[in-house]
Amino acid sequence: MLKRSLIYLLLLLVCLCRPAFGQDSFYRRTFPLERVKLLDGPFKQACELNIRVLLAYDVDRLLAPYLKEAGLTPKGESFPNWLGLDGHVGGHYLSALAIHYAATGDTACKQRMEYMISELSKCQEHNGDGYVGGVPNGKEAWAEIRSGNTAVVWQFWVPWYNLHKTYAGLRDAWIYAGNETAKAMFLELCDWGVELIDHLDDQQMEAMLANEFGGMNEVYADAYGITGDRRYLEAAKRFSHREILDCMAAGIDNLDNKHANTQVPKAVGYQRVAELGGEPAYGEAAKFFWQTVAYNRSLALGGNSRREHFPSKDDAISYVYEREGPESCNTNNMLRLTAGLFRMDHEAEYMDFYERALYNHILSTQHPVHGGYVYFTPARPAHYRVYSAPNSAMWCCVGTGMENHGKYGEMIYGYTGDSLLVNLFIASELNWEEQGLRLIQDTRFPDEETSRMTVRVDKPMHLTVLVRYPRWVGAGKMQVNVGGRNYASGASPASYVAITREWHDGDVIEMAMPMEMAVEELPDVPDYVAIMRGPILLGARVGDHRLDGLIADDHRWAHIAHGPLVSLFEAPALIADRETLLKALRAMQPMVGKPMSYTVPKFLQRENDSSLVLEPFYRIHDSRYMMYWLAVTPERYAEIVAEKKAEEERRLALDRRTIDAVTPGEQQPEVDHAMKTHQSHTGRHRDASWRSARDGGYFQYELETKGRQDLVLMVRYWGAEPEGRTVDILIDGQRLGVEDITGERDEQRFRDVVYPIPNTLVKNKAYITVRFQSAAGRETGRVFHIRLMESN
């Protein structure tokens, strides 16, 4: 192919004229993964286990959507789970193979990576225009977009998000594994995308970017970093959603109720545009985004979101109510953002957050035995989480999970000028070839509050080593000793301790990092707290009853822990004032032979609670658990029981009857339920999302019946709609009823209307399509929630 040959020639000339790119120069002031060897500990174990999991996947099935879309014959069948997003996991898998090869030198990962690139290259050549992707019926979508019909993205399952994973996979195969074919393919795909969006004006681009598009701005900034071609930098800017960018650059938090993992990759792209393109406004936007998410919108484990959305301040209590807690993908992308900002500005606060999220969320999302990945980590007391299995679940968090556990060496160390940064306390060995230095970090942190680093050099050298003084170590308590001198003397938490001296072979840095117990309130909900020891979230196991769907199958919603909810008033609670609670926690001693495990004093517990053991949350698996605790005085506990217990019982009763439910106006639930619309729009009222239709328009969802009969449909409306709002409700085209939404228009409240469903409409059906239809010249009014339930 002539174009491919020209790209190879261009790359050769670039290599001859400037230093070759690689991971260390592409992500500046960081060490390539192959230079950081993980030593014995939980991170090395996780990485090695993950390689075994990766090699259990059927690569031909992951490649099937690409071959199919190129008009070639697939060598395997597409995976049925998340089929509408077919192709996205293949891109993640390519990234994961390259990352794990770089981290470990595993040749099986390299061979699979090269096989994938060979097959993808055939697809790109057969397409003939530079395109390579697994988006189902993608060519139809791209043709419509090229013609200016950007609204077509809503008729597909986030096509740009899907394609972004292919861009990233090809990029990573070059960055981490040095594969030049992947690099050429990446740039060819970039050229295809530039040509496509050149047909769109700014208004069309902005409308299209309201649909989730992953990190498209990031990969185009990276293409600029590779080539210096400003067309790619301009494309990165065009893929930067102004609705978020402009607010973030102005210091305005407009994230309430937005789909969280749609937003985080945008900020990753802003950071890359700033880092590579020198655009200050983009840098300010990335920093403010990080600050508001890390400090105001993240839980104690470092994760964020419930039901995949950022709750508003007034709705933060929903973390306690919902079974869909922080999503793993969000934290994967927050770590990417954190790492990028740290490369630009070596502030210790970035590494404080990175450490917390790495230990408590990312490490915890891999099952320590079978290696399955976690999607949601509920914060709800006494709930649990479920795990994927190879060749079954094809969730987005399976894709990022494939990558996560190979990147643990990425930020342990860094450098600025000729100074070495020690950011994380993880057992590892650094090989800084350019300086002729090796650093061996021996630590059992967090089981021990120490780390010992041995310097190996061929000859004496003068060097500054900067060691992070974590925020969680008290003022004056950090020790960084070399040759009898404590270099941390006078240093402050959330900073770096500078050790400037001449180093000799065998010199040792001895660190002591005392950890204390602390309680951390759920954002904006002071009655609920998490328990921390240093940066480590402590949780407690509370039983393994009804862990329904613990290992997920191919069901569309198998990533959600659907087992019964435990009443918030049956979950353990800590009954004491805050001062007494904290004093008791700090007086606890580790259990014999179980470091970082503590028996909770019985005087803190209610009489009906069993003995509880606190341990690192990342070690809790196959169990219901406590992450956040109701922690109040006896008087306050009595008030809460009086005020909330009846409401909680009604909520649980409703949950037990529910077969399926959808929240109109929220991205993921609508995608999950195969929404179709015409003349429909959405908004928010009283912190709740809604959808309506007008002038003959409609919106509809597929709801699962689980083969049951004697069902009812519950629909939530607002009780004060303007005149003339009616909605016609149909099931599989047959009318269920007509609702005059203005009938109780003077009631300033939500109202739930229940419609009995004749068994003839659901008999022998696994799914039904529920449509909300407007009349010509009329509007349906707002629908806030839809629930399919057993009649009693």
Automatic annotation (TrEMBL):
Residues 420-515 form the Non-reducing end beta-L-arabinofuranosidase-like GH127 middle domain. Residues 653-789 form the Glycoside hydrolase GH146 substrate-binding domain. Residues 36-410 form the Non-reducing end beta-L-arabinofuranosidase-like GH127 catalytic domain. It comes from the Bacteria. InterPro entries: 6-hairpin_glycosidase_sf, Beta-AFase-like_GH127_cat, Beta-AFase-like_GH127_middle, DUF4986, GH146_SB_dom. GO terms for biological process: carbohydrate metabolic process. Residues 663-689 are annotated as: Disordered. Residues 543-629 form the DUF4986 domain. This is Uncharacterized protein. It comes from Parapedobacter composti.
